[in-house]
Amino acid sequence: MPAVEYTVVVPAYREAGNLRPLVTRIFAALARIDSPVPAPLVEVIIVDDNSRDGSEEVVETLQREGYNVRIIVRTTERGLSSAVVRGFQEAQGDNMLCMDADLQHPPEYVPAMLAALSPSKQFVLGTRYGGGAGAVDEGWPLYRRVISGGARVLALPLTAASDPMSGFFGVRKESFLKARNLNSQGFKIALDMLVKAQIPSHAIAEVPFAFGLRSVGESKLTGKVMLRYLTQLLELYWYAYSGVVAFVFLLLIALIILFIRWLWYIGEEPMITVPISRGRGAGH
Ligand SMILES: Nc1nc2c(ncn2[C@@H]2O[C@H](COP(=O)(O)OP(=O)(O)O[C@H]3O[C@H](CO)[C@@H](O)[C@H](O)[C@@H]3O)[C@@H](O)[C@H]2O)c(=O)[nH]1
Ligand SMILES: [Mg+2]
């Protein structure tokens, strides 16, 4: 067996129904004749938080079928970011990729994402805002697009990357090891790494992709997660600039909230009062 050079880390919570299509599609993409990365150099690590939904059995079956995939089941810890960090710590490959289990990050982009990493490109981001990738978050309800847009605007002062929130990203091991005090709470581990590993803009590669719709299971993006994002941002502003910037941050938050309220206002259907018919048929 050749040594593993690439590791795909997949944080997963209650994703049993998605693991087979995910793994088989990743390796099918890598097995294509035009894949820039050969399949035998790649391993997949699922980091599951004790879902007990059959995920382990699915992975065991895939292993028996010859796929280079393993599952780490955490029983004492929970959370997306810390799951990703754990996967990166266990990775054998020097080139590491993180992607969701629910197929919202299309497995067919994995070869291009992995191949984009090199000593001069320490970070790769799957971006939903790049040219030619198709629709941005098509099919999302207005509120979800507003949250995504607001989160992105707030991160602008921290990184030149166009979509540090996509959750579909890769990093070279040496840069991951450079990032100290990673925030293990919340959803925005890519942003945390970009800031704390001090990745310069010229070392970031971007791969445009179209964010899919979740087919099985539920999103874990809750109000609590969003609040954590705000506290994480505050910490990163503090880290990247100085304490004074916290004031600017609060101002920005206020503006974003006003913006969201305004969008909500224009997004609402106008209320039409329909007069109650008193003619035939009424009361039947
Ligand atoms: N191990 C583990 N995995 C988790 C946890 N919470 C979520 N995950 C896994 O993390 C992935 C993303 O979670 P979703 O619940 O599908 O999140 P989402 O709302 O679709 O958010 C995605 O899109 C955002 C962009 O708008 C991204 O910012 C975010 O990272 C994620 O990719 C999924 O594979 C999910 O199983 C957890 O506590 N533990
Ligand atoms: Mg999802």
From TrEMBL:
It catalyses: a di-trans,poly-cis-dolichyl phosphate + GDP-alpha-D-mannose = a di-trans,poly-cis-dolichyl beta-D-mannosyl phosphate + GDP. Its EC number is 2.4.1.83. GO terms for biological process: dolichol-linked oligosaccharide biosynthetic process; GPI anchor biosynthetic process; protein O-linked glycosylation via mannose. Pathway: Protein modification; protein glycosylation. Gene3D superfamilies: Spore Coat Polysaccharide Biosynthesis Protein SpsA, Chain A. Residues 7-176 form the Glycosyltransferase 2-like domain. The keyword rRNA-binding does not apply. Belongs to the glycosyltransferase 2 family. This is Dolichol-phosphate mannosyltransferase subunit 1. The lineage of its organism: Eukaryota, Fungi, Dikarya, Basidiomycota, Agaricomycotina.
